[in-house]
Specification:
Distance between the termini: 82 Å
Structural class: alpha+beta
Strand order of the largest sheet: 2-1-6-5-4-3
Largest sheet: 6 strands, mixed
Radius of gyration: 23 Å
Number of strands: 6
Helix content: 25-40%
Number of helices: 4
Length: about 160
């Protein structure tokens, strides 16, 4: 009887030590959550609101961006976000047509969308149409979803952001 008891106890200990299956991910809720995060991050970014943008950035990995003006890759820092758009601002900025692509393990997400807007130059007051397509790459962290990279391209016959000095 002792060997049988020992095997039962051993089986119980081993079964308790096995990792429990994680909760299934609600993909529709995750899509909604990441679109909201994307909009919140981008709104903070274009308004030079680093504290709000920082909530979507990780301290452990840099966030990078290819801007729609064709300039080289930029690491998004407090200084870069705070000073982005000096001399101009968005009079209008709308994001639409979000498409969300979730990795099979639901730990990374690519999101693609369109933007339409109007760029206003501070000195002259001139306004020019703005129209881009964009993509962002997000990763799951212990601190929530964080943006790792974004890429912006002007649409055909349209312009991206003004080049910055």
């Amino acid at each position: 009887m002792k060997p049988l008891s020992f095997l039962i106890v051993l089986f119980f200990v081993i079964s308790c030590a096995e990792p429990q299956p994680s909760q299934p991910v609600d993909l529709e809720q995750l899509k909604t959550e990441i679109v909201q995060a994307s909009i919140a991050f981008q709104t903070a970014y274009i308004n030079n609101d680093y504290p709000k943008a920082k909530a979507y950035m990780s301290d452990d990995m840099p966030s990078t961006i290819f801007n729609s003006n064709g300039t080289p890759l930029v690491v998004q820092t407090e200084e870069q976000i705070t000073n982005s758009g000096l001399g101009w601002s968005f009079a209008k900025f709308d994001m639409s047509n979000h498409q969300v692509f979730i990795a099979p393990d639901a730990k990374s997400i690519a999101i693609a969308f369109d933007t339409e807007g109007i760029v206003r130059f501070d000195e002259s007051g001139d306004e020019v149409p703005y129209s881009t397509r964009a993509s962002q790459f997000w990763v799951a962290t212990n601190m929530g979803w964080k943006i790792l990279h974004s890429h912006w391209s002007p649409k055909a016959a349209a312009k991206g952001i003004p080049e910055e000095n």
